[in-house]
Structure formats: structure tokens, C-alpha cells
Specification:
The chain has one domain. It has 6 helices and 3 strands, in the order E-E-H-H-H-H-E-H-H. It has a 3-stranded antiparallel sheet with strand order 2-1-3, with helices on one face. Helix 3 packs antiparallel against helix 4. The chain is globular.
Length: about 130
């Protein structure tokens, strides 16, 4: 069974992040290295402390919820859902139980190449 992947984009910086939906195989394999690589320090602390207290048994439980936590963290940081590999964002929202802010095509700035305004019209009038 393949996992659906949702893409997020930050509207101001243009940084994109991809997140698989469902069980986090990467967390199960790499443990605390995954949130360190993603620079998610709160999630890293959760994985490290949970792993230390339970001898890494908690990583199995956290793997079920990690991607949902990561999506929440991205949304809190201002990222917008751009699209999915399979299906639509509404299906992912149902699967995650979250409402995701969406990056709509109408949010993109209009193209400027070939649509240049007349330079004289944009210059201020001098007295």
C-alpha cells in the first residue's frame, strides 16, 4: 500500500515541504534524526525524551502520529497546502482529521513577463 504525499509551500519564502500521510516509516527507521533533519525541535525533544524513558518503544507509537504532528507544525509556521500526489486535499483532510489552509492558484502573483506596463504611466508627474 502506498502512502499519499501532501506538499506544503510557505507563501512568503517559497520553501516547500512534502509530508507522507499516515504511518511514519522514516521515524521508525531513523528515530530522532528525522525531526533533527526537519529542524522540528519540539518533535525532536518528544522523540528523544520518549525514547529515553521507554527504551525507544515509544517510537513505534509515535510513528502512527508523527506525520500528523508535523503537518500541524507546518500549518502553525504559516505553510499552505499546495497539493497531493493522489486524490485531493479534502481526502487528506479527512484522513488527518484536520482542516488545512490551502494555496490556491489565484494566490499566485500574476505573471509579469510580456505584460509590462507603459513606463510613462507608472512615473510620478513632476511639477
Amino acid at each position: 500500500m502506498t502512502q499519499n504525499i501532501i506538499t506544503f509551500e510557505h507563501p512568503k519564502t517559497g520553501i516547500t515541504r512534502t509530508v507522507p500521510v499516515g504511518f511514519s516509516w522514516r521515524l521508525l527507521q531513523f528515530g530522532a534524526l528525522l525531526p533533527m533533519y526537519q529542524r522540528e525541535w519540539k518533535l525532536c525533544l518528544l522523540v528523544v525524551v520518549g525514547g529515553a524513558l521507554t527504551f525507544s518503544v515509544s517510537n513505534v507509537l509515535l510513528a502512527f502520529f508523527y506525520n500528523k504532528f508535523y503537518v500541524r507544525s507546518l500549518v502553525a509556521a504559516g505553510f499552505l497546502a499546495r497539493g497531493t500526489e493522489e486524490g485531493c486535499i479534502a481526502q487528506v483532510e479527512t484522513q488527518l482529521g484536520l482542516t488545512l489552509p490551502r494555496h490556491l492558484p489565484s494566490d499566485d502573483p500574476p505573471p509579469t513577463a510580456g505584460h509590462r506596463l507603459d513606463d510613462r504611466a507608472t512615473e510620478p508627474a513632476h511639477a
